[in-house]
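Worked example 2:
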Amino acid sequence: MVDAILNAGFPGIMTVLSGMGNMEQMEDNISFMKDFKPLDKTELAAVEKVQKIFKSKNPIPCTACRYCTDGCPKHISIPDLFADMNAKQIYHDWNADYYYNDVHTSEGRKASDCIKCGKCEKACPQHLQIRKLLADVADAFEKDSEE
């Protein structure tokens, strides 16, 4: 949504894509843009500063759109596994291991189950290197369980 707000402020922009998954999100986006005013220079600088801080702390910038999961032949819940990885790396959240092992991969479908077909990467609007990131997730969560 932040990118949509920033892009909407440029002259000549008539449409922004903000990513919506249901009617409630669409209505929220429409209401937000109803009386839209572009950000001033101070506001833009503040947003850019926050974006830099956020990006420096978010090792996997997945937006959880779930486009990657639709074509996955192994039915891996990629956004959930990326969220687990972010929780582990950013917050050192001890619950991340629980969620990875007992919730998000309870039916199998671990990061290491990826067959590297690349369908997920073709669908990803963020252009993430999902196959490599899943290997990183497997290294972070599964190496301990193998010992």
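The chain has two domains: 2-57, 67-146. Residues 91 and 121 are 27 Å apart (CA to CA).
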